[in-house]
Amino acid sequence: MTLLAIKDLRAYYGQVQALHGLEFSLDEGSVTTLLGANGAGKTTTLRAICNMVRATGAIEFDGKPLLGKSTESVVRLGIAHVPQGRGTFTNMTVEENLQLGAISRKDTGAIAGDIERMYAHFPVLKQRHTQQAGTLSGGEQQMLAVARALMLRPRLMLLDEPSFGLAPLIVRDLFGILGKINREDKVSILVVEQNAQLALEIAQKAYVIETGRIVMAGSASEIASNEDIRKSYLGY
Question: Residues spanned by CATH 3.40.50.300 within the chain?
Fold first, then answer.
């Protein structure tokens, strides 16, 4: 079943057009990755889904149009966005950040159990639960940002460069947890990532974007095994 469908998406920063008719889809329960160089339009695509930039075309989530809705309305439909740079509330504790992630939920009785579930996914956060987020390492802050997004109980999570600035071992651990979350919690994931090799390991479908256009699409295994694509677009 198609969860997210994007057709003829065009996005703008002022008079500058950043996306030129993007079309792609994401199946429910899947991991899909958007790959490409810096400035290709990957981050803009995620922002357009959340209505954070001016855009035209069509974006449908579970058959419902998203364009024209407020960012808050998009979140309430079950879409969580983890932007590049983590964006944790540095003066709040780990646990306060997690509680904030669930602030829009009505099932308040289930929040404590979900916090414990986040601690099971990310044991280091349990150890740091009373610590201010600003004192965490970069890898721990990224884990907190993902966990806070999951507190929404989203159907779809948008991840923007989750490996940025992290040590390789931390990155591999994080991607392993993301794969587990997708399998066990059934959260669909759209991940923008420059570490193409790692993203393709957990994704089922991949799209390569260049200067605001999709230039290649296929299964993650097809993209990963195509030497010309790897050399031309993915840099490995």
Answer: 2-78+154-234
Domain boundaries 2-78+154-234, CATH class? alpha beta
3-state secondary structure the chain: CEEEEEEEEEEEECCEEEEEEEEEEEECCCEEEEECCCCCCHHHHHHHHCCCCEEEEEEEECCEECCCCCHHHHHHCCEEEECCCCCCCCCCEHHHHHHHHCCCCCCHHHHHHHHHHHHHHCHHHHHCCCCEHHHCCHHHHHHHHHHHHHCCCCCEEEEECCCCCCCHHHHHHHHHHHHHHHHHHCCEEEEECCCHHHHHHHCCEEEEEECCEEEEEEEHHHHHHCHHHHHHHHCC
Mind listing the pLDDT tens digit for each residue in 4-46? Answer: 999 999 999 999 999 999 999 999 999 999 998 889 999 999 9
